[in-house]
Each structure stands twice: as structure tokens, then as C-alpha cells.
Amino acid sequence: MVRCGDIVEQSIRLPSGNGPIMLHGRALRYIDEVARQGSIRKAAKTLHVAASAVNRYILELEEELQAPIFERLPRGLKLTSSGEILIQHIRETLQAHQRMRAQIQSLKGLNRGEVVLATMATLAAGRIAEIVAAYREKHPQVSLRIMVGDRTTVAEMVALGQADLAIAYNLPDDSRLQRAAEFRHALGAVVAPAHPLANRKTVRMSDCLLYPLVLADRSLSLREVVEAAAPARATLVPVVETNSMELMKRLARTTPHITFLNRLDVDREMATGDLVFIPLTGTGSLQRLNILHRARGSLSPAGSHFMQFAQERLLASFDES
């Protein structure tokens, strides 16, 4: 990813009715930042330049393209259809420039870089935090930026070039994205050690429905997986619905509540004896943990190295479970 303060000597050539337009590094950064901020004033403040200079670049480019880039709204600026095409091209150019610089530095043996990872809050607080800490211990020269969102937002961050890669559950298929790895894990019932079901080696979903259910709400892909595991004609009636996995686990510690997660989500609580994980039988419902990056272009050396490290760590975790 390219930070606003980077000096970019890259330029791109755009077609127009009056011949090709050359956009140089400064204009690329100005337009990219305005698109991110939705405001010329905010973009200028971030870039440490005068707002009039940013506005001038935009107006000149719109005149040369003979098409508006931004729609002027009372609350700020919004990309037009032409602007969406332009900004995608600009970000691809900025990212290509960053990759080129990183590859050259890698050849020099510096191995520095930045990796931007998009993930879900449920993973960021657990498995991703562990992977990041382990990676930073071995490679302190690489900086990491973790961005959190739901599965749609996470996929869009990568597709739009706002993140280098994504690690998240049940990401949808998208022609703009390349699936680098997928790990599948069955759901289980999660209960307190004193729960009546805690001593079972496996449990059926129908047995779980006899107890107060704490379920992920419909904003989480986990809810779809849980509902797919329910018996035909059964109705799931939760006593609590939430988008917080931490709350789900906290309530599961109080008998007789029961929730549904995969083993990786509760491995720390299992190690401390706070929760019990019981595999569900009679269902083929799986949670898919995906690692994705953009289909076009290539990852920076740091991004590629981190992705490989994360894959190895996740594979080891799934093997252990």
C-alpha cells in the first residue's frame, strides 16, 4: 500500500478527446486521497498541501477528460462512474509502483515493507493476533496494518486495493479476488464444564435445542452455517443474538447456555478449562476460513511472505485441532 507521504515518481497515460493525458505522482496521490476522504479540504490536510492546489488538479483533469470525476454533494464529494474507473486505474498504478520499490529493496536484502491485512473482529482478537505477534517477533522490520470489517467489507477492501490480502470466514466468490488457501472446520457446541452436555464426545443439534441458545446474529456468516446445521423443520429460537463472539463465549460459560463455534475460536478457553467444545454430528455444515488477495497484479515481497507465514500457522492450528 502507498502512504500519502511517499514520493511517487510514477505517471500514467490516460486517453482523452484531445490526446493522451499524463498524470504524475502528485496528481495520483491527490485524486486518490480525495476519493478516500470524500472531501478536498480533508485530503489537503492529510497531504499537507493547499486545498486550492488539490481542487485545481481535479478541475484540470475533468476538463481534459471531458467528464466529471467527482459528484459535488452537500456533504462532500462522491466518485462518478468515470471517477470509479479512473480511481481503480490510479490505485493499480500506485500499488504497482510500491511493489516495484519493495522488490528492488528485497533484492538489496533489506526485506522491509508494509502489509495491510483485512480480517474480521472475531479473528483479529484471537488467531490473527497470535499470527501477527509471531510474525513480528521473527520479522520486526516489516510493519503490519490490520483492518477489521464484516465479510463483505473485507472482500471489498482487497478488491479495491485498500488491503493487500484478507483472512476471513466464508468469503463470497468474486472474480476480482484470488483464493490462495481455504481451511474447513466443522462446528461444535460450546458449553461450560458444568453443563449437562459437557461430558459427551459428540452431540446432535437436536440435543442442543433443549437448552437456551446464544447465537450469532444475521450480520455474521456464522449464523448461516448454524442454521444449515439445524434439523429439518426445526426453528432456532435464541435467547440472545449478538455479533460479538466474546459475548457468545462469556454467556456460554454460564450454564445452561449453549452456543456454536469452531474449535479454533475457543482453543484458548479450552486450554484454561473455561469452556468445552463438543463436535456436532449428523451435519455437514462447515466454516470456511479463506485467504484471498487480488486476482490482478502480484503481492509485494513482504505481503507474499506474510501470506505464506499465515498459511503455515493456520495449517498447523487446524492439524492440531
Automatic annotation (TrEMBL):
The entry's keywords: DNA-binding, Transcription, Transcription regulation
Name of the protein in its database record: LysR family transcriptional regulator
Assigned protein family: Belongs to the LysR transcriptional regulatory family.
CC terms in the record's Gene Ontology section: cytosol
InterPro entries reported for this sequence: HTH-type_LysR_regulators, LysR_HTH_N, LysR_subst-bd, WH-like_DNA-bd_sf, WH_DNA-bd_sf
Limits of the HTH lysR-type domain: 26-80
Single Gene Ontology MF annotation: DNA binding
